[in-house]
Design a protein that fits this description.
The chain is built from 5 helices and 2 strands; from the N terminus they run ββααααα. It has helices at residues 24-27, 29-32, 41-48, 52-70, 74-107, and strands spanning 11-12, 15-16. The chain has a two-stranded antiparallel sheet.
Length: 114
């Protein structure tokens, strides 16, 4: 199976900018080993999540499975919280901010009427 089915290549200025920033060879394990979910795991999972509650549930289950595997230690909880915060910031930086910039260009800025 081609890994790019799950981690679709995004190329900008000739550089592969896939997320997450791990080597492609290290991404392979996520195709076959993701909690017993079928192939195309990431896309299939993303396609069946219908609302923010379900998204929260899936993310929480992944985090709890990480803790279960590595043990209940402060450092592991801290690792999870750090990864979630990093993912949040990366999502904002790479996707939300450019979206907002485009909306600003098309709709104009918020009034400074205060």
């Amino acid at each position: 199976m081609d890994i790019n089915i799950i981690f679709k290549n995004i190329v900008k200025d000739g550089k592969d900018i896939n997320m997450p920033y791990i080597d492609k060879k290290d991404r392979v394990k996520f195709i076959s080993q993701c909690g017993g979910i079928n192939t195309n795991t990431i896309e299939e999972l993303g396609n069946i999540i219908d609302n923010c509650g379900e998204l929260n549930y899936v993310i929480t289950r992944i985090c709890l499975q990480y803790i279960k595997k590595h043990g209940q230690k402060y450092q592991k909880y801290n690792d999870v919280i750090g990864a979630l915060e990093g993912a949040k910031l990366e999502l904002y930086r790479r996707h939300v901010a450019p979206y907002e910039d485009n909306k600003f260009k098309s709709n104009g800025d918020v009034d400074n009427a205060y």
